[in-house]
Amino acid sequence: MSELKRTQLYNAHIAAGATMVDFGGWEMPIQYPEGIVAEHLYTRSCCSLFDVSHMGRLLIEGPDRVAFLQHVLSSNVLALDLNKAQYCIIPAEDGSAVDDAYLYQFEADRFLLVVNAANTDKDLAYFAPIVKNYNCTIRNITAETVSIAVQGPKSGEMLSVLAGGAEVTKPARNNLSTMDLEGHTVQIARTGYTAEPIGYELFLKNEDALWAWNRLLELGAKPAGLGARDTLRMEGMLPLYGDEMGVDEEGKPMPIFALALAKFAVSFDEAKGDFVGRKALEAQAAAQAAIRAKDFSPEVLAALPKRVRPIALVDRGVMRHGMAVYRNGEHIGWVTSGTMIPYYKTEGEGENVKLLPETGKRAIGIAYIASDVPANGEVEVDVRGKRLKAVIPTKHITNNVPPYVVPVLAK
Amino acid sequence: MTINPDLKYSKSHEWVRMDGDVAVIGISDFAQDALGDLVFVNLPQVGDDVTAGEAFGDVESVKAVSDLMSPVTGVVCEINEELLDAPENLNNDPYGAWIIKVENVTDTEELLDAAAYEAHCAAEA
Predict the structure, then answer these.
(1) Which residues of A touch B39 (CB under 8 A)?
(2) Which residues on A lie below 8 Å from B37 (Cβ)?
(3) pTM for the full model?
(4) Domain shared by A223 and A320, yes or no
(5) What fold does the segment set B8-124 form as a domain?
(6) B63–chain A nearest CA distance, Å
(7) Residue A180, exposed/middle/buried by CB under 10 A (0-12, 13-18, 19+)?
(8) Cα dist. A209→A11, A49, A180, A181, A212 in Å?
């Protein structure tokens, strides 16, 4: 067992009383003393800081960088303008995922690709023989840089204090900027993994890590660990490699188009040419479109037998990753992520939504189940030997109107 | 971490208080702190048998599920129904939030007094 890696903020986490765990070879905070529930709620009501420096940061440089990325990523890299980011998947030839990633263009002559911490070495090994055929290079800058996610309704205001009152990026998601914040050059992305309508990810030099962390704490942000990061992303139906991507409980590859968001992450633009997995993904995409149009014919279901869906427990209990899901006694898949997740009760609609002081909690999660289960369909989950009733809602939250996430409670 | 000096403790971090012939059972401050935010409890029903050293229910945190071990053998005569809706009471008031009461106690696990339990926790921490 090799020694665990530590981020530049390790001492800050220890000083704050964090519980540290091994995550993808890194010693990372899973929670701070206030606990996962408080950290989740503080993200939804105010602003949390997440040390995400463990994620793999790869710079793709050289004349053929676009051609290389068009070949190995699912997205259309040519559609990415300067100071924009896009979500993408690294497909395998069979149409399953090697990893998922975010691609950023902060500078005109290079791309930043951020991959899962636990997959960084695997991704580099996968890219190595392919990148040889292109006039470009991959530089792993994970150790030389830090990344801090600043997420929640107050995140924009707090960052703007550091920018002397200026907006740090254009308002919509996926905008980027490079700014001087109190004398430190910071790359800022309007992205995140919490489903917050307002959230940012900062990329900084190692020596700037403590300044950014401490300044944002002074401004009222609180640290949040990997535990809250997981409940926040689960509530927002954001997939996690190893749960909703990769292989299923039987070791079978999960098709990328099992994910609803594949529609936005995969491009079949002509400019992408014959990229890795294209043929398999085209078949999956056709099946996903048919299923969305309620065509559950055998050919369609054979092409995409299972999909990733929200799931909410109706009976009392808690669902966990790996629990079997049944419909009328027939095994139709598994829970891929699940726990008890807190939420703020709200009143009003759209821009007038207010968070109430009262909170609730609900046993929700994500399931990988037969594609023909309809919206609001009833299923059962085997929770340690007991069959508990659950439903398949269309979503757990709405987050399309800033600044607040609004829970959608299953009936 | 606090240890209530008036209670007896099991090595698996449950506490026991004898109210006459009835054993009142909860979990220690050490246990609730190690488990983290508790979000769900599974309790037995009144009339169920419990056995010393065996699970009588479980508690779930955001991250994981953990068995509750009974320090005594007997019959459940009352459960703390408040915990079903407010499992966080176990975090906020571990020595006030009892979990079950057991009567007809026929056997008891080897229990630690507060001083011995403190040493036991120190060794586990």
Answers:
(1) 37, 318, 339-340, 361
(2) 35-38
(3) 0.95
(4) no
(5) OB fold (Dihydrolipoamide Acetyltransferase, E2P) (2.40.50)
(6) 7
(7) exposed
(8) 11, 12, 14, 13, 5
Structure tokens at B94: 């571990």
Intervals of chain B under pLDDT 70: none
As a residue count, chain A comes to 411
Interface contact flag, B40 A318, Cβ < 8 Å: yes
How many angstroms separate the CA of residue A317 from the nearest CA in chain B? 7
Q: What is the mean pLDDT of chain A?
A: 97
Residue ending a domain, among A233, A250, A283, is A233
Q: Tell me whether A327 touches chain B (CB under 8 Å).
A: no
Residue A373 is classified by DSSP as: P
Q: Which residues of A touch B62 (CB under 8 A)?
A: 36-37, 227, 231, 339-341
pLDDT of residue A411: 67
Cα separation values, A131 from A14, A94, A297, Å: 39, 20, 41
Quick one: pLDDT at residue A350? Answer: 85
* A170 and A312 assigned to the same domain: no
CB contact under 8 A, B40 and A317: yes
The two three-digit tokens of residue B37, written as one number: 């935010």
What's the domain range around A390?
A: 306-411
Domain finish residue from A233, A267, A291: A233
pLDDT digits (tens, 9 = 90+) for A56-114: 999 999 999 999 999 999 999 999 999 999 999 999 999 999 999 999 999 999 999 99
Q: Given CB atoms, is B65 within the 8 Å cutoff of chain A? A: yes
Count of domains for chain A: 2
